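Reviewers of the previous submission asked for a worked example of the structure-prediction workflow described in the proposal, so we include one complete record here. The input consisted solely of the amino acid sequence. No template or homolog information was supplied to the procedure at any stage.
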Amino acid sequence: MRTVAAVIATSTGGMLGTMVLEATGRVSQAVAPSVVLGAGYWAVGSLVLTLKIKRMKYVVPAAAAVTGLTAGALGLSAGEAVAYTVGMLIAGFFLALTCGFSGWLLTTVWELDRSRELRAQLAVAEERLRFGRDLHDVMGRNLAVIALKSELAVQLARRGRPEAVEQMIEVQRIAQESQREVRDVVRGYRQADLTVELEGARGVLSAAGIDCRVQRREQRTLPPTVQSALGWVVREATTNVLRHGEATTCLIRLAPGEAGALVLTVENDGVPAEAPGRPGSGLAGLRERLAVLDGTLEAGRIGGGRFRLRAEIPAWEMEDEAQVETGEVRA
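From that input alone, the workflow returned the following structure tokens.
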């Protein structure tokens, strides 16, 4: 507002002073119009560049009216007042249009540059989130299994049991697998296979003394993106079963849902009355993965010391993926 006030005061003072000099005869009538209209044009252009678009339309009529009224008030003839008004109105309109377009163009260029910068920042942030989410999902279960098997190997070694060597060999294998998976995460190639994750969950939970049953009632061929998303759900659920509570049974079910949807359910017992510590980022990461496929994730206690994790992916996502793979496109 200070800029607007300064422009108005400066231009008005210049125009008023010139008209006074013209009315008193100190400035010739050939010079005065150029000075007055020049100051007015400068004011119009400056105000158009300063004000918002909604207020630009009032600048030229207001400047023309003020110029004409001022000329008449200072005793100039009616013809001179009308000439000032018309000159300011016509030339001011084209000048305002030019300045307004230039201001809009500069603003658009600035916003475009800003949007590109924000897009680059969002891309970097998204990549960081992806890396952190994948690293958590990859290392969470493997570290839990390594800790479990290492503890078992220590107990067996103290008793002089030869099975301790087998457990440490398994720990070594899991550690090497973790190294490979971390490299895949860094390269951005990491994909989870649902079948492999289901069998892995059965083996890991069984090795921990948990009665794990896997029921796969879904016979459709699942697209890679769906398998990857559900594979991460199985991996995170397995990690949570191992880390939290003292589960003795676990049921993993993959079955069709309503309207052709695909539902994955992981249910286990041995859930403590209160959640230990702060909630982790694993479930949030799973929700982000499923959201890409318009899927949903529900997790919570269901009574009787049991916990249920339920992931659902709608049918149209699997249809769209299948059509992309076969080159079909829906009309």
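Residues 2-117 form one domain. We consider this example representative of the routine output the project will generate in years two and three.
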